[in-house]
Q: What sequence folds into this?
């Protein structure tokens, strides 16, 4: 796994915590640290995709246990939550898994013994995996401590306020309260699916709350005394997290772990806002990882640890940057690195193929302008198509499957909430429209059209399923639209996704002023308000809830 070509950005001597710079985390010590990772068969989350997979697994397992198997709601949700806990909070599993296994054997909340035995067996495997991860953490701490050689230094942000964990604590408490309240209100009269979902929401809230409290506790403990220091190399990964390398891995071949970080601010938070905003926009516009930089790591890195990094700035004339971990350390196994390299290779191939298709779309726009022979170019429009409406239809069918055939007050309460949310989002999916005229781009919306002049456009891009347009003006909320796609089919048969075509054509108009429409759009062409459509959809949903069985 290599970095983008470029020189290594050095860390000034004034930023080093001790006179000799401190010990370097050499390749030999790094290999011993990697050797302490748990066995390959133990799942080791390394990115946000693993968290999403764990959440989806928890929802799927809950649905299977509560509907086809007929389990009690609490008994269906608690085993499913162990997939999430194994991913983000393995500290819970050594206690929770045995207790839950005993409860399932004694209470038998399922319809038969085979299902209970199967769930207990899975809980035993989850327990073993969690224990192996915790044992590996201890070995990682020991070997990282050996690499530091007993050299310690006070953290440069020890006296500053510590925001770590606040968001998780607040959001976790809200989810826990909502889930617990739903359990109390629906357990007596609702069908099994809704109480099970309520238990799952409460469990996710408890997980977020525990993660916030534990992260805050570990961050405070790190700052309570001088911490071990190691000289390392870092870079910002393609996904925004920071990747850490051994000090002698100057080619960036093998990242050791990744961690989400946030810059430590001291003094007036409003200072240098414009420069920081420009730096953020530059990072967002950059494709691929950033340059390798020298850094000093404070703390003992291991799975789930909190650290602090003092790194060289990406600009030569800027002072070093102090960055706190805003998430746990996530070690990268050999398999994770190979998968990341394969993803980067595929991503590069996709970017190349899509760039060619977008260029073809832009050339089509140019040829159309040449064919017009200098005549005034008319207004151009892009709008929702079959894929967008298919996405909206699937959402409605999925939401309807949760409510039809059930009775009780929960149906109308939760159905009303779902209808309100759907009325806000569905009109955009069904009828979004972008109009280009002489003055810029117009986007329709619930309250009416929004205008973005040509010279204020910052990005026009299609990433995955999202088509987005953003502005240099901070007050402009980025516009986006989503539609399903199948990249393999697109590359195999050279199919141009409608969003890719829209990006190519809009970019051609944005970059080349001679291709832009030469007339302004009329009021009706700029986009009509979507709130009448939202009102119709809300009324139709309410009527379906009341009159359909």
A:
């Amino acid at each position: 796994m290599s970095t983008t070509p470029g020189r290594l950005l050095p860390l000034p001597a004034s930023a080093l915590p001790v006179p000799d710079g401190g010990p370097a985390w050499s390749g030999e010590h790094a290999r011993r640290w990697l050797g302490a990772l748990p066995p390959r068969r133990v799942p080791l989350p390394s990115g946000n995709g693993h968290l999403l997979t764990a959440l989806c697994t928890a929802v799927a397992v809950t649905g299977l246990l509560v509907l086809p198997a007929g389990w009690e709601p609490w008994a269906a949700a608690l085993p499913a939550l162990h997939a999430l806990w194994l991913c983000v909070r393995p500290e819970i599993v050594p206690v929770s898994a045995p207790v839950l296994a005993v409860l399932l054997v004694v209470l038998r909340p399922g319809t038969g013994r085979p299902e209970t035995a199967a769930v207990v067996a899975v809980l035993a495997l989850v327990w073993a995996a969690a224990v192996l991860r915790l044992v590996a953490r201890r070995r990682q701490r020991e070997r990282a401590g050996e690499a530091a050689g007993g050299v310690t230094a006070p953290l440069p942000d020890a006296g500053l306020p510590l925001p770590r964990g606040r968001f998780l604590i607040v959001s976790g408490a809200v989810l826990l309260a909502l889930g617990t309240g739903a359990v109390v209100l629906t357990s007596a009269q609702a069908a099994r699916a809704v109480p099970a979902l309520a238990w799952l929401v409460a469990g996710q809230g408890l997980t977020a709350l525990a993660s916030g409290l534990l992260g805050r506790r570990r961050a405070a403990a790190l700052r309570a005394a001088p911490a071990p220091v190691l000289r390392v190399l870092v870079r910002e990964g393609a996904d925004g997290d920071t990747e850490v390398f051994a000090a002698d891995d100057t080619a960036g071949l093998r990242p050791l772990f990744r961690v989400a970080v946030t810059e430590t601010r001291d003094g007036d938070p409003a200072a240098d806002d414009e420069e920081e905003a420009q730096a953020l926009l530059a990072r967002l516009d950059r494709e691929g990882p950033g340059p390798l930089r020298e850094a000093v790591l404070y703390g003992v890195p291991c799975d789930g640890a909190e650290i602090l990094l003092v790194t060289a700035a990406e600009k030569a004339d800027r002072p070093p940057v102090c960055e706190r971990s805003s998430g746990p350390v996530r070690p990268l196994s050999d398999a994770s690195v190979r998968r990341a390299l394969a993803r980067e290779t595929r991503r590069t191939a996709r970017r190349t193929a899509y760039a060619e298709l977008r260029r073809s779309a832009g050339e089509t726009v140019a040829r159309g302008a040449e064919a017009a022979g200098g005549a005034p170019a008319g207004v151009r429009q892009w709008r929702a198509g079959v894929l967008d409406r298919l996405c909206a239809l699937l959402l409605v069918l999925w939401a309807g499957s949760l409510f039809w055939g059930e009775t009780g007050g929960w149906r109308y309460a939760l159905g009303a909430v779902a209808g309100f949310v759907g009325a806000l989002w569905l009109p955009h999916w069904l009828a979004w429209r972008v109009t280009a005229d002489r003055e810029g781009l117009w986007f329709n919306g619930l309250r009416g059209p929004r205008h973005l002049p040509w010279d204020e456009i910052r990005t026009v891009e299609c990433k995955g399923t999202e088509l987005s347009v953003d502005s240099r003006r901070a007050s402009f909320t980025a516009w986006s639209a989503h539609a399903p796609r199948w990249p393999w089919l697109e590359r195999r048969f050279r199919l141009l996704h409608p969003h890719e075509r829209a990006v190519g054509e809009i970019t051609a108009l944005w970059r080349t002023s001679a291709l832009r429409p030469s007339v302004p759009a009329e009021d009706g062409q700029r986009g009509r308000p979507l709130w009448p459509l939202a009102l119709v959809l809300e009324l139709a949903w309410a009527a379906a809830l009341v009159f359909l069985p």
User: Anything to note?
Assistant: The two ends are 56 Å apart (CA to CA). Confidence is low (pLDDT under 50) at residues 268-275.
